[in-house]
Amino acid sequence: MADFYQNDLIITLHRLGNPGLERIESELMEFTRQRPVALVLPALVTEFEGEAIKGIVAELKKVRYLREIILSLGRANDKEFQYVREFMSQLPCEVKVIHNEGKRIKEIYATLERNNVWPGEDGKGRSAWISYGYVIANAQSDVIALHDCDIVTYNRGMLARLCYPVANPNIDVVFCKGFYSRITDKMHGRVTRLLITPLIRALQKIVGPNPFLMFLDSFRYPLAGEFAMITDMARTNRIPWDWGLEVGVLSEVFRNYSTRRVCQVDIADNYEHKHQLLSADDAQKGLMRMSVDICKSIFRFLAAEGIVLSDSFFKSLQVAYIRLAEDTMVKYEADAAINGLKFDRHAEASAAEAFSNAIKIAADSYSENPMAAPLIPNWNRVTSAIPGILDMLKKAVDEDNR
Amino acid sequence: MENFMELLLQPLRDFGITILQFVPNLLAMLIIFIAGFLFSRLIKLFFLRIFRIINFDSWCDKAGLTAIIRKGDIWSKPSDVFGSIIYGFLIILFLVIGLSALRLPTIDNLITQFFLYIPRAFSALVILIAGYVFAGFISRAVLITAVNSGYHYAKILAEAVRLLLIVLILAMSLEQLQIAPGIVIAAFSIVFGGIILALAIAFGIGGIDAARRIINSGESERPEQPKQPKQNDEKKNDKEREAEYL
């Protein structure tokens, strides 16, 4: 990124000049003596068949400042779990693989359910949440960093830049989110470009100045899956188990911490990962499902802030959204033109129409049941309900990795 | 010749009679085993149902009993674990009753010892469970008190108290089970006494400065006022004495 613009709510850390990875890493070696860092990697077993994870592990082999890596493995049988353990054992730091389908972790989930602590459905949210629980139980790390395992363009500089603001004791930051552009021969990131930003701005038009909407709008890539935070945050923040994970995490950060202690950092010039289909006709799949869950998450948070969301509100919202999405498309078309990128205006307009439909589905769903929040309780509440749960979780993970 | 044949056949006849006398006992034993097995299963199912009704698993989770079970790398539901323990106990009981049907003196002796041991095992189990819950309660109380008092090592202190209580409870259970009672009592006395002595020494050495401060402050805070009049009185007396002398 070539600018150094700061918005007035959160800190933006740009990539200026030549920051030097070696310098950042050597500083991180010092900082992490005081604030050890745990890296959480939510992954599906199918991701170990691809090339992305090999690249990530090859890069992580060169990282020396991590105290521990916790890989939360989903949809794997015992044999696949053992394979992943062996694969991850090449890393230089302590690695623990959480076997979410194993009998021990399943029993942990069953223990939670019978005590009315709903750990949510299988997915990235629950994987991240259980990993945070292990980090808290292990009591080794003060900082948690998280990124996906399907990043094709991964390099260790991403992780270093992500960890730096939270690990550095001289920067008073509790939460740091990554941002980047997503381009190949065209622009990607349709949900962020054509849904989130126009939707937030449409909401601001209707609701007026709102701190939460301004906070969301401050993020250059609010749906980025890469972030770092202090471990205490994992105790106090609830996590959505549905596709509204990223927005839900930001909502909890906004609710529990001062925005002055939140930052976003430029972690990569370009970012490429697995693309999802739009599935415009099926709201249960692909980007449509993600869009519906994100919209519901935003609506619920606004309602919790005391904003009345009526039928007429949603009707106005849809109209305002479409207008802003069209305006946004024009901006991106010009941006694509100057950068020599392909721009399919029809595909973009179709996506915006699908997202408009997603807003309607989310609004209907919210109106039907405004209280249906897909949030996993925070670890403070969980330990209050079941005092020995962290010990049990630690035992389960340690035994699985023995 | 007849005598010789008698000599040969008599043991066989005796053996046959013994077998004939033994077979009903054996059959009785087998029937008791089978009935005991079925009865134990029924009782297990009954208890599992009761456990479900009273929400026993959830109670175990909250009381910390599940955490103890998990420490032993057992990942079944607490109700299943306790159901299996009851089942196992009943199976052993019926095994013993079945064996007693054989009417063998050695086994009878063992059975008597077994039944005499049951109350001890039961009380040891009660001590263990109640003790663990009590240790958890005390440890938590210490933790809350220490945290509220602003003590930096509150968690370590609470864990130390918990460890001490668990050592005490284990010693009590082993003593109740009569497993090498002399050694257990001696080992417990040494370990517990050692810990207390270590704590006393640590407190003594660590508290030298604090004790000195307390003593010094006690001395400095001692009321000087009553002394003053005395001194004045003494001075007065001296002056009076001087005047008298003059």
Tell me the helix content of chain B: over 70%
Q: How many distinct helices of chain B?
A: 9
Which residues of chain A form runs of ≥5 with pLDDT under 50? none
Low-confidence stretches of chain B: none
DSSP helix count of chain A?
15
Overview of this protein structure:
The complex is a heterodimer of chains A (402) and B (246). Chain A has 402 residues and is an alpha/beta fold. Chain A has a single domain, classed as Spore Coat Polysaccharide Biosynthesis Protein SpsA, Chain A, CATH 3.90.550.10. Helices cover 51% and strands 13% of the residues of chain A. Chain A contains 15 helices and ten strands. In chain A, strands 1-9-6-7-5-2-3-4 form an eight-stranded mixed beta sheet, sandwiched between helices. In chain A, strands 8-10 form a two-stranded antiparallel ribbon. In chain A, α7 packs across α12. Chain A is globular and about 55 Å long. The termini of chain A are far apart. The model of chain A has no long low-confidence stretch (mean pLDDT 94). Chain B has 246 residues and is mostly helical. Chain B has a domain of 103 residues. Helices cover 88% and strands 0% of the residues of chain B. Chain B is built from nine helices and no strands. In chain B, α1 runs antiparallel to α4 and α4 packs antiparallel against α5. The radius of gyration of chain B is 36 Å and the shape is elongated. Chain B starts with a helix and ends with a helix. The model of chain B has no long low-confidence stretch (mean pLDDT 85). Classes of the chains: A alpha/beta (402), B mainly alpha (246). The interface between A and B is medium-sized, with 17 and 14 residues.
